[in-house]
Protein backbone atom coordinates (compact mmCIF):
# COMPACT_ATOMS: atom_id res chain seq x y z
CA UNK A 1 0.00 0.00 0.00
CA UNK A 2 1.26 3.54 -0.75
CA UNK A 3 1.26 5.41 2.59
CA UNK A 4 2.01 9.07 3.27
CA UNK A 5 3.76 9.73 6.58
CA UNK A 6 3.25 13.18 8.11
CA UNK A 7 5.17 13.55 11.37
CA UNK A 8 7.20 16.53 12.58
CA UNK A 9 9.30 14.63 15.13
CA UNK A 10 12.25 13.43 13.04
CA UNK A 11 13.04 10.24 14.98
CA UNK A 12 9.42 9.09 15.00
CA UNK A 13 9.09 9.94 11.30
CA UNK A 14 12.18 7.90 10.39
CA UNK A 15 11.00 4.97 12.51
CA UNK A 16 7.60 5.01 10.79
CA UNK A 17 9.17 5.12 7.33
CA UNK A 18 11.50 2.26 8.22
CA UNK A 19 8.85 -0.04 9.70
CA UNK A 20 6.36 0.62 6.91
CA UNK A 21 8.96 -0.02 4.20
CA UNK A 22 10.11 -3.19 5.98
CA UNK A 23 6.49 -4.35 5.99
CA UNK A 24 6.34 -3.96 2.21
CA UNK A 25 4.62 -0.59 1.92
CA UNK A 26 5.60 2.17 -0.49
CA UNK A 27 6.20 5.22 1.69
CA UNK A 28 5.77 8.86 0.71
CA UNK A 29 7.65 11.17 3.05
CA UNK A 30 8.13 11.79 5.75
CA UNK A 31 6.66 15.28 5.63
CA UNK A 32 6.80 17.64 8.60
CA UNK A 33 4.45 20.32 7.26
CA UNK A 34 1.18 20.53 5.38
CA UNK A 35 2.91 22.06 2.37
CA UNK A 36 5.44 19.22 2.18
CA UNK A 37 2.70 16.60 2.60
CA UNK A 38 0.53 17.94 -0.21
CA UNK A 39 3.53 18.41 -2.52
CA UNK A 40 4.45 14.73 -2.07
CA UNK A 41 0.98 13.71 -3.25
CA UNK A 42 0.78 15.74 -6.45
CA UNK A 43 2.19 13.10 -8.82
CA UNK A 44 0.81 9.96 -7.20
CA UNK A 45 -1.55 10.35 -4.24
CA UNK A 46 -1.24 7.82 -1.44
CA UNK A 47 -3.81 5.16 -0.67
CA UNK A 48 -3.62 6.00 3.05
CA UNK A 49 -2.12 8.77 5.18
CA UNK A 50 -0.63 8.34 8.65
CA UNK A 51 -0.78 11.78 10.28
CA UNK A 52 0.39 13.44 13.45
CA UNK A 53 -1.98 16.22 14.47
CA UNK A 54 0.46 18.89 15.67
CA UNK A 55 2.77 19.88 12.81
CA UNK A 56 5.90 22.01 12.62
CA UNK A 57 4.36 24.81 10.53
CA UNK A 58 1.49 25.41 12.94
CA UNK A 59 -0.97 23.59 10.71
CA UNK A 60 -2.82 20.57 11.95
CA UNK A 61 -2.80 17.02 10.68
CA UNK A 62 -6.59 17.40 10.67
CA UNK A 63 -6.19 20.12 8.01
CA UNK A 64 -3.93 17.80 6.02
CA UNK A 65 -6.49 14.98 6.32
CA UNK A 66 -9.27 17.27 5.08
CA UNK A 67 -7.15 18.41 2.12
CA UNK A 68 -6.18 14.83 1.22
CA UNK A 69 -9.77 13.65 1.47
CA UNK A 70 -11.11 16.61 -0.49
CA UNK A 71 -8.56 16.52 -3.32
CA UNK A 72 -7.93 12.82 -3.76
CA UNK A 73 -10.33 10.91 -1.50
CA UNK A 74 -7.42 9.67 0.62
CA UNK A 75 -8.39 8.20 4.01
CA UNK A 76 -6.26 8.94 7.05
CA UNK A 77 -5.24 7.46 10.35
CA UNK A 78 -4.10 9.89 13.01
CA UNK A 79 -1.10 8.95 15.14
CA UNK A 80 -1.31 11.41 17.98
CA UNK A 81 -1.80 12.00 21.68
CA UNK A 82 -4.45 14.58 20.73
CA UNK A 83 -7.27 12.04 20.70
CA UNK A 84 -10.11 14.55 21.16
CA UNK A 85 -9.05 16.51 18.08
CA UNK A 86 -8.77 13.27 16.15
CA UNK A 87 -12.29 12.22 17.13
CA UNK A 88 -13.64 15.55 15.91
CA UNK A 89 -12.33 14.63 12.45
CA UNK A 90 -13.84 11.14 12.41
CA UNK A 91 -15.82 12.12 9.31
CA UNK A 92 -12.62 12.05 7.20
CA UNK A 93 -10.42 9.61 9.16
CA UNK A 94 -10.48 5.88 9.72
CA UNK A 95 -9.18 6.07 13.28
CA UNK A 96 -6.49 7.17 15.68
CA UNK A 97 -3.41 5.47 17.08
CA UNK A 98 -2.71 6.91 20.52
CA UNK A 99 0.87 8.05 21.16
CA UNK A 100 3.08 6.61 22.45
CA UNK A 101 2.56 3.47 20.40
CA UNK A 102 4.32 0.23 19.57
CA UNK A 103 5.43 -0.75 16.07
CA UNK A 104 2.96 -3.63 16.09
CA UNK A 105 0.12 -1.22 16.82
CA UNK A 106 0.92 0.78 13.69
CA UNK A 107 1.12 -2.29 11.46
CA UNK A 108 -2.07 -3.87 12.81
CA UNK A 109 -3.91 -0.54 12.57
CA UNK A 110 -3.00 -0.35 8.89
CA UNK A 111 -4.33 -3.89 8.41
CA UNK A 112 -7.64 -2.84 10.01
CA UNK A 113 -7.75 0.28 7.83
CA UNK A 114 -7.16 -1.84 4.74
CA UNK A 115 -10.09 -4.07 5.70
CA UNK A 116 -12.36 -1.02 6.00
CA UNK A 117 -11.04 0.39 2.72
CA UNK A 118 -11.88 -3.00 1.14
CA UNK A 119 -15.48 -2.69 2.32
CA UNK A 120 -15.63 -4.03 5.86
CA UNK A 121 -17.83 -2.09 8.28
CA UNK A 122 -15.68 -0.75 11.14
CA UNK A 123 -18.14 -1.98 13.78
CA UNK A 124 -18.00 -5.53 12.39
CA UNK A 125 -14.24 -5.93 12.89
CA UNK A 126 -13.47 -8.32 15.71
CA UNK A 127 -12.16 -6.44 18.75
CA UNK A 128 -9.33 -8.97 18.90
CA UNK A 129 -8.20 -7.84 15.44
CA UNK A 130 -7.76 -4.25 16.62
CA UNK A 131 -4.52 -3.43 18.40
CA UNK A 132 -4.43 -1.85 21.82
CA UNK A 133 -4.15 1.92 21.43
CA UNK A 134 -6.05 2.08 18.12
CA UNK A 135 -9.52 3.56 18.00
CA UNK A 136 -11.36 2.85 14.76
CA UNK A 137 -14.18 5.21 13.84
CA UNK A 138 -17.61 3.78 13.07
CA UNK A 139 -18.45 6.36 10.42
CA UNK A 140 -15.82 7.09 7.81
CA UNK A 141 -15.88 9.67 5.08
From TrEMBL:
Species: Dankookia rubra
Modified residues (4-aspartylphosphate): 52
Record-annotated Response regulatory domain positions: 2-114
Stored SUPFAM superfamilies: CheY-like (SSF52172)
Database matches in SMART domains: REC
Alphabetical list of Pfam families matching this protein: Response_reg
Protein name (record): Response regulator
Keywords carried by this UniProt record: Phosphoprotein
Domain of life of the source: Bacteria
GO BP: phosphorelay signal transduction system
